[in-house]
Amino acid sequence: MPVKALPDGAVDDAAPGARSAHEGILRRQSARESAARTYARALPIVPVRARGLTIEGADGRRYLDCLSGAGTLALGHNHPVVLDAIRKVLDSGAPLNVLDLATPVKDAFITELFHTLPPGLAGRARVRFCGPAGSDAVETACELVRAATGRTGLIAFTGAGPGRAPGPLDASAGPLDQVVRLPYPQDYRCPFGVGGERGADLAAHWTASVLDDPGSGVPAPAGMIVEPVPGEGGVIPAPDTWLRRMRQLTADRSVPLIVDEIETGVGRTGAFWAVEHSGVTPDVMVLSKAIGGSLPLAVVVHRDDLDAWEPGADTGTFRGNQLAMAAGTATLAHVRENRLAERAAALGARMLDQLQELAREFPCVGDVRGRGLMIGVELVDPQAEPDAGRGARAAGDGEGDPPVTADSPRRPHPAAPDLAADVQRECLRRGLIVGLGGRHASVVRLLPPLTITDEQAVAVLDRLADAVRAAARCREVVRQQRRTRE
Question: What is the CATH number of domain 16-77+340-485?
């Protein structure tokens, strides 16, 4: 039976046969796949067709997809330039996997990639193809700086959520290696309780102290790794002044700076690479997701003087994916030539402004933040006491900490992961796919393709607002019923 076609983004009752097929596939997935599956638990849909922002399920329903393959789909689903690039490779008879051999397809990809790099890096860059996942690229970057410096320790940052760094860093660390996590500055849940420029300054001073104090227990590191906007960590843009301080601190101490652009790259934040907002030129860039044009691809771009690899070091069988390179070339060129990063900056700013209205209407929306088309909405419990462990008051808990004053920022309420999950479910009921992130999975994440239209952006925000309204109303009804019983 053909799948019923619906208006873009509409949600309607599926035909019985389509619904049965849909439910059967989900049942078999649950019975046969590992319990490790994640997105499938929160998003019980069975995609069969997709184009741009829209996904159509086996049950005939259509959804606006603001997850975008966890940021992989810069141009949305099945963009014509990507499909054309893939067809050309298939029709040419070119090999699909070439390990690390040189090919015209690879040469075109590297040429286009170098066109987009920050000027300070492009002129002296080398590119390292590795396994196809972002975590492969992170581990490769860490091994690169260890080989180049002869040191083993690494500096990463905490307070920004899980991200990719902790897992791969721990996995690649030997018994003598040390991964030190330092405070990551942010406004809403500032680790120092002050936020703003003062919070960023304190975080920078802390990092400098650790690096320069022989008694800190932290030996000179092989490198520092930072995400300009931790996505899975809750969409927390790094202050530009802080990121510039990190660049200066590492440059002065001959510590390579690794910037993780896996999710932020290819125009997502309103600049082609997120580091461009701060004017920082890193020593190493970790790239994946959108650079493959929806197909698996990951690379590490680094300064030529860090190229201390021995032949055959850190290899990966699937580092020669020709289809991904062709799709990636088409994506990079389309974003660059059509100035989609600039459009992401303008549209993202308008969406953030409208979401601020949502925060004013609903006390359960604790914070709205983001950069470009990388947006986060943090859900909190406004009925609970403000969290003394995270906001302004946290800074006064220890001896020598800054005192809490009338000028200190408001203490945020505790995160509400259950409410965030309710909002995600209500979004899905309304034909909108969103992700969750943050340290408590309490941040609703929007990662629409850079090709989203103004009209689609309005539809996304309308459905999100309606979902928040429904989830908050349901939560209030439950509270009132509980009070009545008590």
Answer: 3.90.1150.10
In angstroms, the CA 45 to CA 52 distance is 17
Contacts of 380 (CB under 8 A, 6+ apart): 364, 365, 366, 367, 412, 413, 414, 415, 416, 419, 442
The DSSP annotation for 28-67 comes to HHHHHS-TT--HHHH----EEEEEBTEEEETTS-EEEESS
Q: Is the dihedral of CA 241, 204, 182, 156 positive or negative?
A: positive
Q: What CA–CA distance (Å, rounded) separates 392 from 386?
A: 10
Quick one: how many helices (H) and strands (E) in the chain?
14, 15
Average model confidence (pLDDT) for the chain?
87
Q: How far apart are CA 434 and CA 321, in angstroms?
A: 29
Distance CA 359, CA 364 (A): 8
Report the pLDDT value the prediction gives residue 481, as an integer from 0 to 100.
66
Q: H-helix or E-strand containing 115?
A: helix 104-116
SS (H, E, C) 330-375: HHHHHHHHCCHHHHHHHHHHHHHHHHHHHHHHCCCEEEEEEECCEE
Both tokens assigned to 284: 């190493």
- Tell me what pLDDT residue 486 has: 66
Q: How far does the chain reach from its first CA to its final CA, in angstroms?
A: 53
Sheet bearing 47-51, strands edge to edge: 47-51, 54-57, 62-65, 432-433
Dig out the tokens for 257 from the structure.
């700076």
**pLDDT score at 14:** 58
Alpha carbon distance 368, 357 (integer Å): 10
Contact 52, 449 (CB under 8 A): yes
pLDDT tens-digit series, residues 281-297: 999 999 999 999 999 99
Protein fold of 82-178+219-337: Aspartate Aminotransferase; domain 2 (3.40.640)
Query: CA 129, CA 140: separation in Å to the nearest integer?
Result: 9
Residue 403's pLDDT is what?
41
Q: Which residue has the tokens 């969103």?
A: 434
pLDDT at 476: 75
What percentage of residues in the chain have a pLDDT greater than 70? 86
Distance CA 66, CA 361 (A): 23
CA 408 to chain centroid: 29
Can you say how many angstroms the Cα of residue 484 is from the centroid of all Cα atoms in its chain? Answer: 43
Measured CA angle at 314 (ends 308, 320), to 5 deg: 110
